[in-house]
Predict the 3D structure of the following.
Amino acid sequence: MKKTHILLILILLAFSFQACKKDHTVSNDPSLKLSFSADTVLFDTVFTSLGSATHQLKIYNNHSDDLRISSIRLAGGEASPYRFNLDGENGTEFYDKTIPAGDSLFSFLRVTINPNDLNTPFVVEDDLEFVTNGNTQTIKLLAWGQNANYIVADKVVYIGDEPYPYHIVADSLQTTVWTKEKPYVVYGYALINSYGTLRIEEGTHIYCHQNGGILSWSDGQLVIEGTAEEPVVIQGDRLEAYYQNMPGQWQQVLMMDGRAGADHRISHAIIRNGTIGVNCQSVLKATECALRIDNTIVENQNGYGLFSILYAVEAKNFVIANCGYANFWAFGGDYRFVHGTIANYWNANEHNNNENAISVANYAIGGSGPVYYPFRMEMDNCIVYGKQKDEFKAAFGPDADSLYTFDHCLIKSEKYNGTKPGFSHCLFNLDPCFANVTKPDCHLDSIASPAIGMGNPLFGNEVPYDLDGVSRVGAPDLGAYQYVPR
């Protein structure tokens, strides 16, 4: 009798607990969303052979009602290198999965990559998409593809209202050297801290991910030391043929206030397919900050090739070609250009070229009115040409000194056609006969080019060899290249 009595009590208690348990309905409220253990799943291993890794992702329902996930899918589908495991089942997509109130699901993600496959992008991305009550939530999946040195942002700094995710590559009083043994892939910004120096040796290839680049903080120093045989190359990290000439794939090389005796230097470099090729801005040290450029090509930038605020820039033997807004844009500062080719035949679809090859000013409009700074520019043995009627634009106000001179240059301009001061021994509106204006290829490609033999030998002697290493002593052509019959 006692056993029967105890059994009856247990049964009654069980029914009692069941009756007290709250019924949870599956909610279709669109304001209820899932929570996750991470918003990005980062496979941070640098693979050295055929590699795979697995990471866990927890999916939470932190609400008082059950939630039904109508679909979970890898955006890349079957072509994705990622695989997803949910409730012991592998796949790329799942449907109608319910998470009870206050409960969670465990899932696992796996990626398989051959890092020695040169057709694999450096950064392998995909998205894991969840749709719940009409809301789409996305978890980013990120892994490294080819063997490389990976610079991954781990902090954020704000410049104005803009966030700049970064990783310090050269800290204060530290000199870091990048070499050519393996390429560098920059995810975010590679930051040079105050009183730090980053030296980049010849032959080094740097691939910047979307919205990333190189950032020299105030009093930092960037030194690029390429050679004619082995230039330093900075470009986007997408290597597929489709991206070969696509602008805007990464952000910029940005230099802030420099320090005395530690000029930034860019020698024998190719900087392409970004938004701003070289961006140098002074805030506190107008024209004390210096950038020296030689034997360098900046091309196919979505915005600007060389963008400068109050900097002192000297550039010799250089090409700035095909930029969406202006090849060279400056507010204030001190500039000298020798044997440069500045050519803008922009034809990408994002926007029309609504600036000039060169656009300069001695004032900017601030919150309380115009702000003026002195401007000085000297161009010697240069070519400034493109699709616009006027490829040189100057906006100067009376409250700051401004001076520009063009000496032995070829310029496309209807406004400045030799009748205004500042031009000496210049040619106007004569096609320089570039080899290919869309590629771009700014070699002189015809014996009929008016640029041939028109340079001042004094300026030619400053840079006795052109961008290809061809001698220009004695009879220099205008621009970065000597004419060589083909």
About this structure: The chain has two domains: 26-144, 149-462. Confidence is low (pLDDT under 50) at residues 9-13, 15-21. The two ends are 112 Å apart (CA to CA).
